[in-house]
Amino acid sequence: MALLNYTQQKKVGRVVFHIVVVFLCFLMTYPLLYMLFSSFKTAQDIFQHPNSLFPQEWCFDNYPNGWRGFGGVTFTTFFGNSLFVTILAVLGQVASSSLVAYGFARCNFKGRSIWLAIMIVSMMMPAQVLIIPQYIMFNSFGWINTFLPLIVPGYFGYPFFIFLIYQFMQGIPRDLDEAAFIDGCSKYGIYIRIILPLVKPALVTSLIFATYWKWDDFFGPMIYLSDVKKYTISIALKMFTDPTSVSDWGASYAMAMLSVLPVIILFFCFQKYLVEGISTTGMKG
Amino acid sequence: MAQSAVRPAQGKQQNFSFSKFINNENTVGYVFIGLFVIGFLVFTVYPLFSSLYYSLTKYDGLSAPEWIGLKNYTRMFTTDIRYQKSLLITFIYVFTSVPLRLIFALIVAMLFKNGGRVVAAYRTLFYLPSVIGGSVAVAVIWRQLWGYGGIINKMFNAIGLIEGDFSFIASESTALATVVVLAVWQFGSPMLTFLAGLKDIPVSYYEAAEVDGANGWQRFWKITLPCLSPVIFFNLINQMISGFMAFTQAYIVTRGGPNDATNLYVVYLFEKSFTSRQMGYGSAMAWVLIVIVGIMTAILFNTQHKWVFYESKGGK
User: Do B136 and A282 touch (CB under 8 A)?
Assistant: First the structure.
């Protein structure tokens, strides 16, 4: 190092930093790359060279083969189910959460602080411990093997999103409300005309998180859905890739790849919102 | 405030008109948070208490629950050896995966604290696993990577630690480690909170320390860690709770096995409640889990004054 002066040392340091980090990036994303490239391998290739990242020859049959699904049900159905459940649940979660958040952020009603505390505590309430009584309850409603248990609870606000949107609303100056109030706008009008347009970033963040969690949800569909025709993508993929029955690994990789593709695309399009959302609420992703 | 909301045009003579009622501050508040109140009572409070009742019964979800008192609870801690093992494994899982995840998150956050577009791209790639890590697809790939003749197997062959084919997933001593590594791999969200926290530390602190002759290591221990401690505390609570709730990955990668080596609490709870349909017993397990998580959270909250520094209180 004595041969190098200070600026040269700095330059070398920077190059070393980038080499190390690029290598780490490769390690971090390796499982994804493995999934992507394996989905283009032939069955023979997967068997003979399971650990070479790139295919010996590129094979595109895995996608149409996998799409045929199992039990006479194609992946069109599974993706359709996931899309249906995700869209309805996510819209409900975000719309209801923004209403509740406005109530907490801008209304001075009796019992506000108590309910706010309850909301924050219930954010920490793990959903899995309530699954048995909820199952029994939904069973008595006749909701088993329907999408309703996966969709309806979202329409009553989701504490994490309530908190996220609430935090964002706190940052909007109250002068705006007061100006609108003097002009004769009611609290309802202020919500629709003033606050809602301003909290759009928080709504987008919530929308994306909600989409991820719903799309990836495995526990809920596994408990509530028993008919193959009603399977969402996560549970269909679990069946499709079961090690005891699977024969076509290429097709499994292809469908696994397709199942995460929407999430990855959303991530790259909206990562700015995600980073901000996590940073402002400090919550888990 | 609310009274003056009634505009002269509507006010007229009837002062307790509908418009006055609906614009009353209390009414408005409960109109907006009403959905949450209903949802909380129906989907949280009622299930919470009904599961307390079920936990004192023998119940298969079909026939009427049969009252058996505390038997479910005593069975858990006296005769159910699988339960006790599951509890132990869950604690090991939480106490390894959570600290490791936070340490990695902090190291990477410090590495990527400054920098332009290239560093932002690195951050994105490091965050990507956390976005898809919970999916079934990743669990399936994990099984391949750590299984017989998988890439991890080959790497251990290459450095001479293992000879021949070895499955980390099928071996009782290593199965839990594969699930822990999978959890640690997803350190993206604590990384982002640490990044936000690091940016909030005033540069003047570091400058002052440098003037006083503090080296990098000292600056880390005396400035970075204390200033970051609220964020660490927050992450610790969140990660601890989600650690106790881990299910999908252990369920798909290892199916709780081999020989219950990865039979995490919720995996076992699911098996008992839905596969064996012992919903009374499952409810008792759920209640014990609530109590455990509650105690752990209380411990963290009660020890925070010893190591968490809040600036508003004068800090240290």
Answer: no
Distance from CA of B207 to the nearest CA of A (A): 20
B185 min Cα distance to partner chain A (Å): 7
What per-residue confidence (pLDDT) applies to A209?
A: 86
Tell me: cis bond preceding B258? Omega within 30 of 0 counts: yes
- CB within 8 Å: A157 and B274: no
CB contacts, 8 Å: A153 with chain B: 39, 43
Find, among B130, B31, B266, the residue nearest to A28 by Cα. B130
d(Cα B103, Cα A151) in Å, to the nearest integer? 37
Q: Which two tokens stand for residue B235?
A: 């992450």
pLDDT cut 90: percent of chain A above it = 22
pLDDT above 60 (res B12): no
Cα of B160 to nearest chain A Cα, Å: 18
Which of the pair, A50 or A215, is modelled with greater confidence?
A215
What is the distance between the alpha carbons of residues A30 and A37, in angstroms, rounded to a whole number? 10
Boundaries of every domain in chain B: 3-54, 73-313
Lowest-confidence pick of A64-73, B10-19, B152-161: B10-19
With a CB cutoff of 8 Å and minimum separation 6, the contacts of A144 are A135, A138, A224, A226
Which of the two residues, A51 and A109, has the higher pLDDT score? A109
Token pair 């339960």: residue? B83
pTM listed for this prediction = 0.86
Enumerate the β-bridge partners of residue B66.
B58
pLDDT in tens, A42-54: 877 777 777 778 8
SS3 of B177-230: the string is: HHHHHHHHHCCHHHHHHHHHHHHHCCHHHHHHHHHCCCCHHHHHHHHHHHHHHH
Report pLDDT for A149: 93
Percent of chain B with pLDDT over 70: 93
Interface residue A224 vs chain B (CB under 8 A) = no
What pLDDT does residue B5 have?
A: 46
Provide the pLDDT confidence category of residue A98 given band limits of 50, 70 and 90.
very high
Mean pLDDT for chain B overall: 84
CATH of domain A65-281: 1.10.3720.10
Residues of A in contact with B113 (CB under 8 A): none
Selection from A229, A275, A266 nearest residue A74 by Cα: A229
3-state secondary structure of B66: strand
Rounded to 10 degrees, the C-alpha dihedral A183/A185/A190/A192 comes to: -120
- The mean pLDDT value for A258-266 works out to 90
Q: Which residues of B touch A237 (CB under 8 A)?
A: 136-137, 140
| Interface contact A144, partner B, CB < 8 A | no
User: How, if at all, do strands B66-67 and B57-58 pair?
Assistant: antiparallel
Measure CB to CB from residue B126 to each of A28, A31, A128 and give the nearest one: A28
What's the pLDDT score for residue B14?
Answer: 52
CA A63, chain centre distance (Å) = 24
Q: Say whether B241 and A130 touch across the interface (CB within 8 A).
A: no
CB-based contact, A75 to chain B, within 8 Å: no
**DSSP letter (8 states) at residue A156:** G
Res B6 pLDDT > 60: no
- As a CATH number, domain B73-313 is 1.10.3720.10
